[in-house]
Amino acid sequence: VFLDQNGVAVITPLIINNGSYDACSSITLSVNPTTLTCANLGNAIVTLIVTDGCNNISSCNATVKVTDAMPPKMSCQGFDAEIDADGNPIVLSWQDFDNGSSDNCGIVDWDLSKTQLDCSNLGKNTIKIKARDASGNESECQAYVTVRDLLPPVFSFVLDDATVYCDENSATDEPEAFDNCGLVGISMVDA
After folding, report:
1. Any residues with CB less than 8 A from the CB of 165 and at least 6 apart, and which?
2. Long-range contacts of 24-33 (CB under 8 A, 24+ apart)
3. Could you say which of 19, 55, 73, 161 is the most buried, measured as most Cβ atoms within 10 Å of its Cβ?
4. Do residues 20 and 50 lie in contact, with contact meaning Cβ atoms separated by under 8 Å?
5. Cα 146 to Cα 123: distance, rounded to the nearest angstrom
6. Given this model, what pLDDT does residue 167 score?
7. What pLDDT does 100 receive?
8. Cβ–Cβ under 8 Å, residues 111 and 101
9. Burial letters for 59-73: b for 16+ Cβ neighbours within 10 Å, e otherwise?
């Protein structure tokens, strides 16, 4: 039997009855249990109960294979992320993207196409998110992460005011600056 979107399969006597009868009267068939769930994945024992018109009861057990063939239903969302002052990578997890994904028997595993973004990923990045249930059914969605560097460079060494005459080549020291995303270009202009 296959589980439905709620993780339930209704068991009826017709599923497991293989010709039960009574020589003297009509029979009534019933089963126990009447439903199987995700907890029963694999082989489950179901009892067929046969009752005749004189209330004589006989029963037998049947093995029912319970299968979940429904993949997870994915709902993903993207977001914007900022590089911090030290330029550390942004660590991603499935919780960052999940927007109410579900599965009839529960999602047991998540995979991301990227788990970190850094200064080399500035701008819009496509991330694929894959979910898997206990039966190996998979679904995938994608979301976008826009990585931004909103911090300006910071000078770590600034030149003192100096007067440079036309016959001199240039100042001897260069200013230095640091940026959380790497190298900084510095240019000096005449004032």
Report:
1. none
2. 24/52, 24/53, 24/54, 25/52, 25/53, 25/54, 26/52, 26/53, 27/51, 27/52, 27/53, 28/52
3. 73
4. yes
5. 5
6. 58
7. 96
8. no
9. eeeeebebebebbbe
How many other CB atoms sit within 10 Å of the CB of residue 162? 9
H or E segment to which residue 15 belongs: helix 13-16
Task: Indicate the length of the chain as a whole number.
Answer: 191
- The three-state secondary structure class of 119 is helix
Question: The tokens of 44 are what?
Answer: 């489950």
Block means of pLDDT (10 residues each) for the chain, length 191 residues?
97 94 92 97 97 94 97 97 92 97 97 96 97 97 96 74 60 70 72 58
Tokens 């039966």, residue located: 135
